[in-house]
User: Fold this.
Amino acid sequence: MTTKLSDLHDNPGARKKRVRVGRGIGSGIGKTSGRGQKGQKSRSGVAIKGFEGGQMPLHMRLPKRGFNNIFRKEFAVLNLGTLQAAIDAGKLDATAVIDADALVAGGVITHARDGVRLLGVGALTAKVNLKLAGASATAKAAVEAAGGSIELPAPPAPPLTKDEAKAARAAARAAANAARAAK
Assistant:
């Protein structure tokens, strides 16, 4: 049987007519158009999310826990097995120093973020020199066992205790007074 242009049609119920509201009381959705009466919610463009009619909303009644540090560092994670696979595939040169830029250029990671952190998942057999933002103790041990080295940034100095800070301020004051007296 061939299909003719005059025989084409939608499936039954495929094209539904839109509801025409506000067209008389006989339609069942006339007058207030199914919105009830009065008030903010009978108007268009109103969405009061979480509002409970003046009662304390649920999100305010529940206890709050924890803390989100907005200054936290986001590290790109690199496993030992991934590093070895990239070296075997020829994406990385094991003789050169491997840093975040080399990893991105080789397609091993997509973004360096705040630095690359090496984790000890998998095995490393190649002798590599790495310059990264961080490494776990097992990853560091595995790299050194393979004959390689890891260069990490120096840890930040610990903050001064109250007594040390007080002594530092006193020394600064004394130096300022001595400079003033020398004039």
